[in-house]
Amino acid sequence: MSYTNETAAAANDWVWVADKENTFLKGQVESVSDDNKTYKVKIPELQNKVRSFKANDVHRCNPVQFDKCDDMASLTHLNEPSVVNNLQLRYQDDLIYTYSGLFLVAVNPYKRLNIYNKDFVKLYKNSTVNLNDTSNNSESDDDSSHLTRSSSVKPHIFATSEEAFQNLKTNKQDQSILVTGESGAGKTETTKKVIQYILQVSTSETNKAASICFENQILQANPILESFGNATTVRNLNSSRFGKFIKINILPASNELSGCHVDWYLLEKSRVVYQDSKERNYHVFYQFLKGASDSLLKEFDLNRSIYDYGYLKNTNHTIPGINDKAEFKLLDSAFDIMNFTDTDKKNVFKILAIILHLGNITFKSSSDSSRQAFLEEKSNKVIGTIAKLFGISDTAFKDSFMSSRVKAGRDIVKQQRTSSQAKFALDALAKSLYEMLFQYLVNKINDNFDVNAVDAFEESNSVGILDIAGFEIFEKNSFEQLCINYTNEKLQQFFNHHMFVLEQSEYLKEGISWQYIDFGQELKPTIELIEGSSSKKVSVFSILNEECVVPKGSDRSFLEKLHRELENKDKSADKSKEKFKANKIRDGFIIKHYAGEVDYNVDGWLDKNKDPLSNTIVELLSNSSSPFIQELFDERALQHSNVSDSPVKGGRNNKSAMFRTAAQRHKQELQDLMKQLDCTQPHFVRCILPNTNKRPAEFDKKLVLEQLRCNGVLEGIRIARSGYPNKMDFHTFAEIGS
Ligand SMILES: Nc1ncnc2c1ncn2[C@@H]1O[C@H](COP(=O)(O)OP(=O)(O)OP(=O)(O)O)[C@@H](O)[C@H]1O
Question: What is the CATH number of domain 479-601+666-674?
Answer without folding.
Answer: 1.20.58.530
